[in-house]
Write a structure and sequence with these properties.
With about 270 residues, this protein is an alpha/beta fold. Helices cover about 35% and strands about 20% of the residues. The chain has helices at about 20-30, 60-70, 85-100, 125-130, 145-150, 155-170, 215-225, 230-245; strands at about 10-15, 35-45, 50-55, 80, 105, 140, 175, 185-190, 195-200. The strands form two sheets. Strands 3-2-1-4-5-6 form a six-stranded mixed beta sheet. A three-stranded antiparallel beta sheet has the order 7-8-9, sandwiched between helices.
C-alpha cells in the first residue's frame, strides 16, 4: 500500500525554548492542522514566558546550508519565515528561497517580542524590504512592524490600510497588517494587489497578555495556503484560528499566556 501524499509546510525561524512562539510554536500549529512540519533554525534564544534574555543568531551560511539541503529533498506546499535576527541571515534565506522557488511564502517580519525585547538588528528591516518582500505571497506585520517596514506611524485602521498598500508598492504581492493592537476590536487589513479587505474580529483578550499570536497567525496562514486555500480564505481562516487559540490559551509559566492552536481535520469545506 502506498503511503499518503505528503503535505509539508516549512518554517524558517528562531528557537523558543518555552515553545510559546518561534519554530516550536509553528511546528505545533502545522501538526494541529494535519500537516508535516519542516523547520530551519535561524537563531537560538534564551527566553521564557516572562521575557527574552538573549538572542544568538546562527551563522548565515549554516542557515542557508540547512535550507538548501532540505529543499533539495522535500518540496513544501508553503513556507513561512519568522525571526531572522540579522540582515545576513535574511539575505541568505532570500537567496535560498529564490534558488528553490515554487511554494508560496509568508513573511512574518519578527522584530520584537510581545514583552518588548529586541529580536533583530537594525539592518534587518531594510533587508526584508529589499530581498524578501519581492519573493513573498504575503507579508504579515503587526502595527509596530508595519510602521518600521513602511516608514510611517501605524496606529489606526486607516494607517494600517496605508501601510499595507505601501508594502505592496515595495514589492510584496500582498500585505496583511494584523490589528490585534488596535484600540477597540481587532481588525486585519489585507491588501492583495489593488484590492483592500478589512477582516473585522472581536476582542478576545488583551493582546499584550499573550505570547506568540503573530507566529500562530502566520503559521496558520501558511498552513491554509498549503492546503490549497486562496489568499483571502487563508487569511480569514487564520484570523478565526487565532481567535480560537486565544480562547483556549494556556499558561505554561509565570508570565505571558500562550494561544493554544485547535486541532482541525482539514478537508473540503473545512477551511
Amino acid at each position: 500500500m502506498n503511503p499518503p501524499a505528503l503535505k509539508a509546510v516549512l518554517s524558517i525561524a528562531g528557537s523558543d525554548p518555552g515553545a510559546g512562539a518561534g519554530l516550536q510554536a509553528d511546528l505545533r500549529t502545522f501538526d494541529r492542522l494535519g500537516l508535516y512540519g519542516l523547520g530551519v533554525i535561524t537563531a537560538i534564544t534564551s527566553q521564557n514566558t516572562i521575557g527574552v534574555s538573549g538572542v544568538h543568531p546562527l551563522d548565515a551560511a549554516l542557515v542557508k546550508e540547512q535550507l538548501g539541503v532540505l529543499l533539495a529533498d522535500i518540496k513544501p506546499r508553503a513556507m513561512k519565515t519568522g525571526m531572522l535576527a540579522t540582515a545576513a541571515i535574511a539575505e541568505a534565506v532570500a537567496g535560498g528561497i529564490a534558488e528553490a522557488g515554487g511554494a508560496p511564502l509568508v513573511v512574518d517580519p519578527v522584530l520584537k517580542s510581545t514583552g518588548g525585547g529586541s529580536l533583530a538588528e537594525p539592518e534587518l528591516a531594510r533587508t526584508i524590504r529589499e530581498k524578501l518582500l519581492p519573493l513573498c505571497r504575503v507579508v504579515t506585520p503587526n502595527l509596530s512592524e508595519a510602521a518600521v517596514l513602511a516608514g510611517a506611524s501605524v496606529r489606526t485602521l486607516d494607517d494600517a490600510r496605508e501601510a499595507a498598500a505601501e508594502l505592496v508598492a515595495l514589492g510584496a504581492a500582498a500585505a496583511c497588517v494584523t490589528g490585534g493592537h488596535l484600540d477597540g476590536d481587532p481588525a486585519d487589513v489585507l491588501c492583495d494587489g489593488g484590492r483592500m479587505t478589512v477582516i473585522q474580529g472581536r476582542r478576545a483578550g488583551d493582546a499584550r497578555e499573550y505570547h506568540g499570536t503573530g507566529c500562530l497567525f502566520s503559521a496558520a496562514l501558511a498552513a491554509f495556503l498549503a492546503l490549497g486555500a486562496d489568499l483571502e480564505t487563508a487569511v480569514r481562516s487564520a484570523h478565526e484560528y487565532v481567535a480560537g487559540g486565544i480562547a483556549a490559551a494556556v499558561a505554561p509559566g509565570h508570565g505571558l499566556r500562550t494561544p493554544w492552536p485547535l486541532r482541525l481535520e482539514p478537508g473540503p469545506g473545512k477551511l
